[in-house]
Write a structure and sequence with these properties.
242 residues; alpha/beta; six-stranded mixed β-sheet; 38% helix; 24% strand; globular
């Protein structure tokens, strides 16, 4: 579905990503892991068009998307959530998802009332329909994360980029969020590229893991192999397993 080839990016003199290549097939769940500062979110920002890479290419379903604007990439079928939720805080939950409906599809003739009905569907799906008239600024962290998911789904993505959905959630909330993600994948047939620091969740969820460290890909493979890789143990624990 998406082919990422030899991606590199510099910020001033800092090489944030260096010659990173991997792919994600249709229907896959691929985990993207690594220590803080490894370049994971930078990669997400490049894929969705927030950053333009210094080198390398990205092809999505046969279309070269390297350097395209975020809205064009969204229209092609890529959407994302953010590690720090970024709703429209001064808008209601319904209003924020309605914006996604209107901007995530090439439907310029869609009226506002129809967009609101579709937005209500996504709020119902993530369990926030009762909060539809609440300002986003009044929602708790779990609700904000579900609002992020609803907004992303409302653009009808083929590929969904998840950036630390579980950050800040307690175990009960994390399990609810995980169930919601599986429901979304089943119902909408989406492919997932997923950054997650909760290793137990991502190792059980992903079919394949890509590991970054200091902007370089240091490993890729099934979770069962990744957890035994000495390079991964050293990257996360700061030393070799004895």
């Amino acid at each position: 579905m998406i082919e990422i080839k030899n991606i590199g990016i510099k910020f001033g003199g800092l090489q944030a990503l260096d010659n990173v290549s991997f792919s994600v097939g249709k229907g896959e769940v691929v985990g993207l892991i690594g220590p803080n500062g490894a370049g994971k979110t930078t990669m997400m920002n490049i894929i969705c068009g927030l950053y333009k890479p210094t080198e390398g290419t990205i092809d999505f379903e046969g279309t070269r998307i390297t350097g395209l604007t975020s809205n064009k990439i969204c229209h092609l079928g890529i959407s994302r959530t953010y590690q720090i939720p970024q709703p429209f805080y001064a808008m209601t939950a319904l209003g924020g998802v309605t914006v996604s409906v209107l901007n995530g599809k090439k439907r310029p003739n869609m009226c506002l009332s129809d967009a609101g009905l579709e937005a209500s569907y996504y709020l119902e799906f993530v369990g926030l329909f009762a909060k539809r008239d609440e300002l986003a600024s009044n929602l708790n962290l779990y609700e904000l994360r579900m609002l992020e998911l609803a907004r992303a789904l409302a653009t009808t993505p083929k590929l969904l980029l998840l950036d630390e959905v579980m950050a800040g959630l307690n175990p009960v909330e994390s399990n609810r969020a995980l169930d919601m993600i599986w429901s979304a994948q089943d119902q909408f047939g989406i492919t997932l590229l997923w950054i997650e620091h909760v290793m137990k969740i991502i190792m059980n969820a992903a079919q394949r893991i890509v590991v970054l460290q200091y902007g370089k890909k240091i490993a890729e493979g099934p979770p069962a192999e990744i957890v035994k890789d000495p390079r991964i143990i050293e990257a996360y624990l700061g030393g070799k397993r004895k």
